[in-house]
Design a protein that fits this description.
single chain; 888 residues; mainly beta; 24-stranded antiparallel β-barrel; globular
Length: 888
């Protein structure tokens, strides 16, 4: 043991003086002492009691500064922190002075959810690059939270590390001890002492005070770039980073059975095993791999009623893909992204043979294996690479002829890969990066799946340039896509809702059924003023061509558009006589199809090609009592829709006005509430909508939180697409008749969450979402002419659920279609009991439940629909999953 360690006993009295009261004066430790990660510190018990003599040698930090409620002001009650390096770990002790310990909010909460409790946090930027770092936080109830930060202000709360913490409450406030193993972070090892970036945060709920050392201001964009420095840190060797997380799972399913179904008799059971592995490749990079992963403990996706032409976007929830997701995040205009990880392991796309009695189809393609490498060098080069393999998926069907059981393909074997590279320049003030994706399907030789692309590629270059102390930014991207396959696959893409190459009045492209590839581009450039005491804003321009197609491994519903916009915001963060802070702003954007370029210098050409746009104002203020109120208002002028006819000619959509208001109470209280009211009105026709939403959070005690979010939505639209037909060709709309309806839609949902914390490592989370939705197709009509909002009313004859239409008035039915009225009742939910029985090792006990009921009624009656929902047959699945963390 080192001599300095033996001498620590003589300094132990100083520890108690330093950590006892802020008014006591004690000489600071030697400022040039080296924090050595190889030092032997002796026994320090992580229990929150800062009574070990070793803390006398720690580097001391005082003088916290407010970010909230008054940015830049001294804190009401200071915090003192000591930091030690030793034995391949970082040790932190913090004393949070508080004259009223009874006011501390020691409520239990879920891991990584510490928004309304007293918190101490410790931030690290080991490479001192001002862009990447780690935040470790602990509440006064000893609930942990950890976050990885990239690009200075992008927070990845899904990143989890294995570390230790302890807390104590005493007469002077509360204390915390943290031990962060170096194996949980990435850093550059060196024999010579170096400087690391460091930050400390404290949240005091009683005064709603958030403070930092050093100060992190609201007036500056970025987080890591405002970190301070801890000098003379020596970490001479790389910690071995090998972690394995094997799991075993058993599940049982029960649900309604159909007589004669040979595949499901009302119950089933299965078991499986798998493995997650993480291995450090030096100090800067990590290899993560998974074999036969299972995500049964993941919260269910919410139910939605989608009447649009596009698929619904769902957030990624699976841990393997959520971890380090920022590395592969390449956002596009309109909410798209080059890499959308939910494409991996997607639901099978094959429909199977027709004329079957019963089917047994897997819910998702099995991920046989996946691996990713991510990290960042000391020279500022960030690299991420991911590869995943999904297996060939088959389904079983009982054929109508003789009851024969047949197996058929529903998803071919597929390979997915993505590579991301980012180089930082000028200390991170300039960044240039590239991301590429690739997908390949092993299509069967019989041509049965030639309607799917065989390969799909995309690539993008992005840049970010900051100047004037990072107050101004110029950033953007340029991306391209290339899809290959059989002509039937490329034709299907051309005809899809994103492209509509078959549109009869298109002037710049046509459907080509012989094409075997498709190529397109998407770019955007933004100039932004991001820092300043009051005024911030941005201007931007963007374009997407019609051949841009990334939906085999990315996500996009936007194509063939020219885009431009501007946004300006004024903010005030200094408390006044009424508001603690407020802001207001103006925003406007406009979209045009490329057909505006048919006559570039004609105002009429641009007017006729407008496909979107809005003029909007917004305002938000927080009162001195921490209540908040906000307002948004916007006007959208008339625009041309290329999608409303689902591949037919364009039609005009009416102008709309929308206004919404929101109010929220002080979130620190045991009962907090937020309310939202939205109003939308179309200036032409019968369109309009109303939305009312409430968010209620109740915390009856320190262990239990109940959240309710009821939402009611009512709308009436005059242009709901129904169908199209070539029966009795109609010349004004290029020979095809396009049928629409006046639709009255009502919907009620109630998202419910219960968090019951028995201890920081034992919790029960419940999620449930009942949904009641109705759609009443009131009046059916036909589009009278392209580039208009004119209709010809139809008077169909209804027999049972079929509508018969007489187009030419000869008293004979010319066309029929099913009545579109609907009532959907749905319940999705799950309950997860989670026990972390040792650090990093967890037991999950999961109950998943779904109930569905549909009826063709159309009107909305809450009591009837709610009763039908709870009488609907239910499917239940019970899962027991055990994993064991091995840090080798």
């Amino acid at each position: 043991m080192r001599l300095s360690t033996l001498l620590l006993g003589a300094a132990s009295a100083a520890v108690f003086v330093v950590l006892g009261h802020p008014s006591d004066v004690v000489a600071a430790p030697r400022p040039q002492s080296v924090l050595d990660a190889s030092a032997e510190l002796g026994d320090i018990e992580i229990d929150g009691l800062i009574d070990e003599p070793q803390w006398a040698e720690g580097r001391v930090f005082r003088g916290f500064v407010q970010r909230q409620p008054v940015d830049g002001q001294p804190v009401e009650h200071d915090t003192e922190v000591r930091v030690l390096f030793g034995e391949d770990a970082i040790w932190v002790a913090a004393r949070m002075f508080d004259p009223d310990p009874a006011s501390l909010n020691a409520r239990m909460s879920r891991r990584d959810n510490l928004s309304t409790v007293d918190v101490f946090g410790f931030g690290l930027d080991p490479d001192r690059d001002g862009l990447t770092g780690y935040i470790f936080e602990v509440s006064v109830a000893n609930v942990q939270s950890d976050t990885y930060i990239s690009n200075d202000d992008q927070f990845d709360g899904a990143w989890d590390a294995v570390w230790a913490s302890g807390v104590q409450i005493d007469a002077d406030g509360w204390t915390a001890e943290l031990r962060i193993p170096l194996s949980q972070i990435r850093y550059e090892a060196a024999d010579a002492p170096r400087a690391w970036g460091i930050s400390f945060r404290r949240r005091r709920i009683a005064s709603n005070e958030e403070s930092f050392h050093p100060h992190i201001s609201q007036l500056r964009r970025g987080w890591i770039s405002q970190f301070g420095t801890i000098d003379n840190v020596r970490v001479a060797s790389v910690s071995r980073r090998l972690e394995m997380l094997p799991y075993a799972l058993s599940s049982a399913r029960s649900g309604p059975a159909t007589p004669g179904d040979p595949f499901f008799d009302g119950s089933s059971a299965e078991g499986r095993v798998g493995l997650d592995l993480s291995y450090g490749l030096g100090a800067a990079f990590t290899l993560d791999a998974t074999v036969n992963p299972d995500f049964g403990q993941v919260e269910a996706d919410p139910a939605v009623i989608n009447l649009s032409a596009f698929e619904t976007f769902f957030q990624e929830r699976r841990p393997f893909f959520v971890q380090d997701a920022r590395v592969f995040d390449f956002g596009l205009s309109g909410g798209g992204r080059l890499f959308y990880s939910r494409r991996v392991g997607r639901a099978p796309q094959g429909s199977g043979p027709s004329g079957t009695l019963f089917k047994e189809v897997p819910q998702n393609a099995t991920i046989q294996g996946a691996a990713k490498v991510s990290g960042r060098t000391s020279g500022g080069l960030s690299i991420g690479a991911l590869f995943a393999l999904t297996g060939t998926e088959h389904a079983n069907a009982q054929l109508t002829s003789g009851g024969t059981i047949a197996e058929y393909l529903v998803e071919p074997r597929s390979e997915y890969g993505t590579l991301s590279v980012m180089q930082d320049l000028r200390g991170g003030a300039t960044q240039i990066g590239v991301l590429g994706t690739a997908m390949r399907r092993d299509l069967p030789g019989d041509g049965s799946f030639d309607w799917l692309p065989s390969t799909a590629y995309s690539a993008g270059v992005r840049f970010n340039h900051l100047w004037r102390d990072r107050s101004w930014a110029l950033f953007g991207y340029f991306s391209g896509s290339h899809v290959r396959g059989d002509a039937s696959a490329i034709t299907r893409i051309q005809r899809s809702s994103i492209h509509y190459y078959q549109r009869p009045d298109a002037t710049r492209f046509t459907l080509d059924p012989t094409r075997e590839s498709l190529t397109g581009r998407d770019w955007r450039v933004t100039l932004e003023k991001r820092n300043g005491e009051h005024w911030v804003g941005s201007v931007w321009a963007a374009e997407v061509t019609n051949g841009f197609e990334i939906n085999d491994l990315g996500y996009s519903t936007r194509t063939e558009v020219l885009d431009g916009g501007v946004a300006v915001t004024y903010r005030e963060i200094r408390p006044g006589t009424l508001f603690r802070s407020y802001n207001f702003g103006f925003r406007s954007f406009h979209n045009w199809s490329h057909e505006a370029l048919d006559d570039t210098w004609s105002i009429g050409s641009w007017h006729d090609a407008r496909t979107g746009g809005n003029y909007g104002v917004n305002a938000f203020g927080q009162f001195l009592n921490y209540w908040g109120v906000g307002m948004n208002a916007g006007y959208a002028p008339p625009q041309v829709s290329r999608r409303q006819t689902r591949g037919g000619p364009t039609m005009v959509m009416p102008s709309t006005v929308n206004v919404n208001f929101n109010v929220s109470s002080d979130s620190r209280k045991a009962v907090s509430v937020g309310a939202f009211i939205g109003l939308n009105d179309a200036r032409t026709g019968i369109g309009g909508g109303r939305t009312a939403e409430l968010e209620l959070s109740v915390r009856p005690n320190e262990n239990l939180t109940l959240s309710l979010s009821p939402r009611y939505f009512s709308s009436r639209t005059g242009e709901q697409y129904v169908t199209s037909t070539g029966t009795l060709p109609y010349a004004p709309t290029y020979g095809t008749r396009y049928l629409f309806a006046d639709l009255q839609q009502r919907q009620f949902s109630l998202e419910t969450r219960v968090d019951w914390m028995f201890s920081p490592t034992l919790s029960l989370q419940i999620y449930a979402q009942p949904l009641l939705s109705s759609g009443d197709f009131i009046t059916y009509k036909q589009l009278a002419a392209p580039k208009s909002y004119d209709f010809v009313n139809l008077v169909p004859t209804q027999v049972a659920d079929t509508m018969f239409v007489d187009f030419d008035g000869d008293a004979t039915s010319d066309y029929s279609f099913s009545d579109r009225d609907f009532n959907v009742r749905s319940l999705v939910g799950n309950a997860v009991l989670r026990w972390e029985y040792r650090p990093g090792s967890t037991v999950f006990l999961v109950w998943q439940r779904t109930q569905d009921d549909e009826e063709e009624v159309g009107d909305f009656r809450f009591s009837r629909d709610a009763g039908a929902l709870f009488r609907a047959p239910a499917e239940n699945r019970f899962i027991l999953k055990v994993n064991y963390w091995l840090g080798l």
